[in-house]
Amino acid sequence: MECRVLSIQSHVVRGYVGNKSATFPLQVLGFEVDSINSVQFSNHTGYTHWKGQVLTAEELNVLYEGIKLNNVNHYDYILTGYTRDTSFLETVVDIVQELKRLNPKLVYVCDPVMGDQGSMYVPENILPVYRDQVVAVADILTPNQFEAELLTGRTISTEKDALDLLHQMGPDTVVLTSTDLTSPHGDQFLARIRIEMPKVDAVFVGTGDLFTAMLLAWSHHHPNDLKAACEKTVSVLHHVIKRTITYANEMAGPGKRPNPAQLELRMVQSKKDIEDPDIVVEATIL
Amino acid sequence: MHEMECRVLSIQSHVVRGYVGNKSASFPLQVLGFEVDSINSVQFSNHTGYSHWKGQVLTADELHVLYEGIKLNNVHHYDYVLTGYTRDTSFLEMVVDIVQELKRANPNLVYGVYPSLCQPYYVPENLHPVYKNKVVPVADIITPNQFEAELLTGKNISTEKDAVEVMDLLHKMGPDTVVITSSDLPSRLGDRFLVSLGSQRTLMPDGTKSTQRVRMEIPKVDAVFVGTGDLFAAMLLAWTHHYPNDLKTACEKTFSVMHHVIKRTISYAHDLAGPGRKPSPPQLELRMVQSKADIEDPAIVMEATVLNL
Predict the structure, then answer these.
(1) How far apart, in whole angstroms, are the C-alpha atoms of residue B223 and residue B280?
(2) Does the structure's ipTM exceed the value 0.90?
């Protein structure tokens, strides 16, 4: 398989979010992953402490220039996630547009990370950049319900409305997720699906990044079959989360709540599930 | 099933594209089940053997800040530390401080050093004394080539006996495990092969030291690779972890992985370049992801000879 992904996400020294969450599983599935680290932090911001440095829009441009000067700016996929900086995000859009000119078949997989359950955890001025510039060039979009409402500008009463509106804005494939991964609704133009899966009693970080990366991988292998792509993706998440919960509870001890360090995804230990996930959910075609 | 719980702190370069530094070390270690925490000492578009390269470097202060974050969360517990190419003396000195602190937190910590001093890319000379006087004394595993071994010990290698003496000198300076990854020594198998040597000193139950020395004949390759030294150091870490008192097996596995990855890479590079044409640096990037199965379970393709001295 010769498939090259450009992933522009955070790097943490310890743990699994952003590029740390996306890269290993994609590589294990045989994708070449070029990764631009938008930040380098010690760990994710859910720990008691975190420290590190951020990449500016200018520095992002410089890295892209290096790739371009060597004439190796050819990608099949781009993957982006959590971004806090509007000028950084605008530079990402410029890069995506240029890469699409070079490869019209390029697929931009975008997780428009802005917030959840009614509150934003990025600066508000990121929204117009996503709404007016990013979503228009995205091919696969993975908003949660709150992000879908922010992007479409309205409260969503039915999933069908949300999906239709988001398609009109750009992406042919939209998967509506949510943080506790209940009932993701997916839509690939004329195919609409629905998945039910059990809630989990913990707060995970990095699962959204893993979800988006695996959706990239499985929609690559099942390009006109969103049902299969979503079943595999959700199944991988299930296995990784299950293994992580077990481990975290063991580490914490009986009756004690695991801490963020203990709740880091058991990514490396889940290699086999990533490579060949047992399907544990079934998507219903609506 | 009992899962392996082994955490490595790897402080190396990051390149957006290609396989050097942390890009070369992380995936194979993760595939083998190691948890890898990685501090990226630089972020460049690609390695410096391409026509162009651009990016940013991490300062010694910024390295310290990242380490502080880890420490404040009380998760600065590592089984291994791995470092490779470094351009900056103050950065390297900060690395040594961190290693010393981590060793106080875990006295069993093993520090693997790829002392990248004599390479087809720029290494400042003022690094030599820092390696010699500060890094090597705290290293447990070291993977110099012949020239680096000579530089660090001040002794030339013309014969196998010289090489063994140099490895003994390195043991005295610090590391119990030394592998001279390549040398000019004549191979028994002819001039299409080069000689690598390894030496591992272990403490016996009765308090005496025992040294196992091995020699390997490695097929030469007709290309300049970048990232192979980083991959070698990472894989030697992994295989000495699984074979802690058996340098022979650890080396056979490590050199075999290298062989498979390089062979796959050469084939691919020549396919891309076309007949009679020399592959370019992008074409010569290691076929890392494609070599996953070989990394997980390398077929042994060379035998190390144990030297009886």
Answers:
(1) 10
(2) yes
User: pLDDT per residue over B233-287, tens digit each?
Assistant: 999 999 999 999 999 999 999 999 999 999 999 999 999 999 999 999 999 999 9
> What's the rounded Cα separation, in Å, for the pair A158 and A161?
6
User: Going by C-beta distance under 8 Å and a sequence separation of 6 or more, which residues neighbour residue B184?
Assistant: B146, B157, B194
**Tokens read off for A261:** 């360090």
In this structure, are strands B141-142 and B110-113 parallel, antiparallel, or unpaired?
parallel
- Our answer to whether residue A209 is catalytic in this structure is yes
Verify whether the Cβ–Cβ distance B53 to A66 is below 8 Å. Answer: yes
Catalytic residue among B176, B230, B246, B271: B230
CB contact under 8 A, B69 and A43: yes
Distance of CA A286 to the CA centre of its chain: 24
Q: Which of B26, B34, B66 to mutate to test the interface with A (most CBs of A within 10 A)?
A: B66
pLDDT in tens, A127-170: 999 999 999 999 999 999 899 999 999 887 777 778 889 999 99
| B16: nearest CB among A34, A40, A268 | A34
How many of the other CB atoms lie within 10 Å of CB of B169? 15
- Residue from A16, A21, A51, A76 to probe the interface with B (highest B Cβ count within 10 Å): A51
Torsions phi, psi for B90 (to 5 deg): -70, -30
> Which chain B residue shows the shortest CA-CA distance from A271?
B31
Q: How many helices (H) and strands (E) does chain A have?
A: 10, 12
- List b or e across B18-48, with b for residues whose CB sees 16 or more CB atoms inside 10 angstroms: bbbbbbbbbbbbbbbbbbbbbbbbbbbbbbb
How many angstroms away from the CA of B54 is the closest CA of chain A? 5
> Could you please report the per-residue DSSP string of chain B?
-PPP--EEEEEEEEESSS-SHHHHHHHHHHHTT-EEEEEEEEEESS-TTSS---EEE--HHHHHHHHHHHHHTT----SEEEE-----HHHHHHHHHHHHHHHHH-TT-EEEE----SSSS---TTHHHHIIIIIGGG-SEE---HHHHHHHHT---SSHHHHHHHHHHHHHHS-SEEEEEEE-SPPTT-TTEEEEEEEEEEE-TTS-EEEEEEEEEEE--SS--SSHHHHHHHHHHHHHHHSTT-HHHHHHHHHHHHHHHHHHHHHHHHHHH-TT-PPPTTTTS--TGGGHHHHHSPPP---PEEE--
Contact A40 B58 (CB under 8 A): yes
